[in-house]
Amino acid sequence: DAKTTQPTSMDCAEGRAANLPCNHSTISGNEYVYWYRQIHSQGPQYIIHGLKNNETNEMASLIITEDRKSSTLILPHATLRDTAVYYCIVRVYTDKLIFGTGTRLQVFP
Amino acid sequence: GAGVSQSPSNKVTEKGKDVELRCDPISGHTALYWYRQSLGQGLEFLIYFQGNSAPDKSGLPSDRFSAERTGGSVSTLTIQRTQQEDSAVYLCASSSTGLAETQYFGPGTRLLVL
Fold first, then answer.
1. Residue B102 contacts residue B3 (beta carbons within 8 Å)
2. Cβ contact A94–B33 (<8 Å)
3. Residue B102 neighbours by CB under 8 Å, 6+ apart
4. Distance CA A76, CA A97 (A)
5. A44 with B91: Cβ contact below 8 A
6. Partner residues linked to A74 by β-bridges
7. What share of chain B is helix, strand, coil (3-state, %, to 5)?
8. Other C-beta atoms within 10 Å of B66: how many?
9. What tens digit of pLDDT does each residue of B78-114 get?
């Protein structure tokens, strides 16, 4: 079973920041937070992952709360091509990925 | 190629027939994974290969499903006596050394069982 809770859907205006929340209140100390996204009719795409510290790469930023019970994926300047289903996954570093139902992000012009 | 490739991209078959789905991982990746995604559903883990062996096949839904990997590279997922409920997108992913590493996914094979 997925260990995360995400909103079913969200909207974001093009050019604005998209902030996607994820609750993982039962996360263990050795579990990482991973984010993948799936654009329609494509395979999932890795975005970012983190353990405790906030992380940033060329695609997004990951903000993890101090108690690690929730996190937020930030797409700083959303484009229409960012329309996708975003999956938040919690897992031990050596465990398999378990996908939930994710958040469907719709970016509109 | 640069990414994970899968073939065929689409497959239509009749109930009761066997199908074979192929996955070519990223060159040099030792770990390979199969997932299934039914219409409107999340991804369901099927099996994980490390080299040619499968330390975790816990997600295979029945004994009609089997997979093999040869030469530490190409993998084939076989579904025998297909049923309509097998209709789904079958996704393959690979990672460089194992479960700890980032998984890169292929485009999937869309299977429709009539």
1. no
2. no
3. A46, A49, B95, B96
4. 26
5. yes
6. A19, A61
7. 5, 50, 45
8. 14
9. 999 999 999 999 999 999 876 667 889 999 999 999 9
CA dist., res. A71 & res. B113, Å (int): 40
| Closest to A36 measured CA to CA, from A15, A13, A20 | A20
CA B14 to each of CA A36, B62, B83: distance values in angstroms, whole numbers, following the listed order: 34, 19, 8
pLDDT at A88: 96
Cross-chain residue pair B105–A96, CB shorter than 8 Å: no
Give pLDDT tens digits for A62-109.
999 999 999 999 999 999 999 999 999 998 866 778 888 899 999 999
Strand order in the sheet with A70-75: A18-23, A70-75, A61-64, A55-56
